[in-house]
């Protein structure tokens, strides 16, 4: 049975685990920012790999756990890595990169030394298998990652290629954009349902409304992109390619355009609004092209974006969700600006006449202003760390 590793924002592991279960995967271990899982599907392994990459909204990357073993010296590390059947995955011109090494409380403590040893072991094994003196490394690049914890080594092969947050619809993110995977996590934190209207009052490049629309219309997050595993030697047969395309077709068939979805965004910066509209148009076009490939001409409704200051908002519906990532703090501005903005948000949000019936979610950047939300909104907080930036989500 294959074992996989999915990376996510620290704090989002329970959400990712639940998403895995809904896709018929079995989480087996959770660590900060990581979830190990296996497949319960009685289908070829390429289907499991495709399904995880294609459908997971909150995972940042997916890896195949090639080997898990004990090693407290470089000889054991080198020999075990070299014994892996690497030619099963790579072609003769492949460029192999050990992109990251992490060690924790282990005798093999030098990350650079581990990186060199693993890279040498892989290249030596491939040269031996193909009777070559040196790998040309002129072809496609593939990534390997190493985690060593308490002298236990996890040898990981990247299945995704480009990070999974790169859905393919955002050509430009504007200033300090939110990652698509983090937006998906926040939507799950709010337990948002498609029947409820949703508005982002600081939409920026439109990530939250676009991710909400894709979720509401059941558009797979991988609908507009390819993945690294598709070029592995072991999955290049005609049958495997057909299985991959069948999964893409199945995902397109499940796209819904018959449901009422009211998703919108606003920003006081007209350039941000224009950018959000452009990204949303591209996102819906990607889904539309997938529908066209299966013979459907259904149009995906676009989220609506307007230029407006937060204080000018009026509730268009009697109930709904207001979910935003205010653009001050670690991303833009300073703590003083963040404090003033959050005071303004809290004042408006606490007013019963401003946005009646709305559930409100925010992703503030400074811990010192969290009391505004905790005391006046009785919010549930979830701390998330993504790309080294710590944020506390209130909802």
Describe the structure.
The longest helix has 24 residues, at 270-293. Helix 3 packs parallel to helix 4 (111-130) and helix 9 (335-349) packs parallel to helix 10 (370-377). The protein is of the alpha/beta class. 34% of the residues lie in helices and 22% in strands. The strands form three sheets. The protein has a seven-stranded mixed sheet with strand order 2-3-1-4-7-6-5. The protein is built from ten helices and 14 strands. 43% of the residues are buried.
Number of DSSP strand runs: 14
What is the number of helical segments per DSSP (H or I, 4+ residues)? 10
**What would you call the structural class?**
alpha/beta
Q: Report on the biggest sheet.
A: 7 strands, mixed
Proportion of strand residues: 15-25%
Overall outline: globular
Residue stretches low in confidence (pLDDT < 50, at least 5 long) are 351-356, 364-379
**Terminus-to-terminus distance:** 39 Å
Strand order of the largest sheet: 2-3-1-4-7-6-5
The run of helices and strands is EHEEHEHEHEEHEHHEHEEHEHEE
Question: What do the pLDDT scores average to?
Answer: 86
CA gyration radius, whole angstroms = 23 Å
Helix content estimate: 25-40%
